[in-house]
Amino acid sequence: MFWNLVRYEFKNVNKWFLALYAAVLSLSVIIGIQGSTLTSTYYQDKGVVMLVFLSLVFGGLVITLSISTLILIIQRFKGSVYDRRGYLTLTLPVSEHQILSAKLLGAFVWSLASTVVFLFSLYIIMSMIQPDVLISNVAEFILKNYQDDFWLALISYIVNTLASILCIYFSISIGQLFNEYRTALAVVAYIAIQIVLGFITLNLRIDFDYNWVLSFEISQRTLILSVVFYLGTYYIFKEQSKLTIMNEAPSK
What we know:
The chain is an all-alpha fold. It has helices at 2-8, 14-38, 45-81, 85-90, 96-129, 131-145, 150-175, 182-204, 210-248.
């Protein structure tokens, strides 16, 4: 049943996102071709105008991709947990932990896919404009800075992404504690959390070596925040689910 919940997270949205991913990658190829043409022509005025236009469209698609991913994360959680469909979710033979885990896994996969598409589109553009320079620079940069810390950086990305998603879930859950203006109060809760975290981060910022800072971010701050956000979301969800079942049961 757990994997059925996970599959539901990709239902009815994969076509939209696949089309959006294809649009971003296709436009990156066009921009790369246009940019490579400019490097080999003397009359570049019209080409520059076209390149700027294509870049603006590309930027718009990237922003659309980011906003769509964020809206998807919010709607998939709020809609099937706290809205009217939440009662149907609660009738499934799964625990609250399984429901939250399925939501978190689906949101992480969509976030990862959007990030990969964005980075790959940038790679396409740069490699088509200056392929020799790009490959040599990227290889030198990776060997110099990330050869020994690749897995640590990967773990850092995963943990930070999960913490960001859980922060959204926790903020939405806080908004459900009120009878009115739940969405607005969820936004207020998210902003308040980010302000507090920013203040803490500012005061704990210490300029040590890269490995120490990255290890600190993973082990001391992000992991703790992830656990706090998850447990807070779980507690509120569990209490709200009891109220939902009590309210809906007589109408069956």
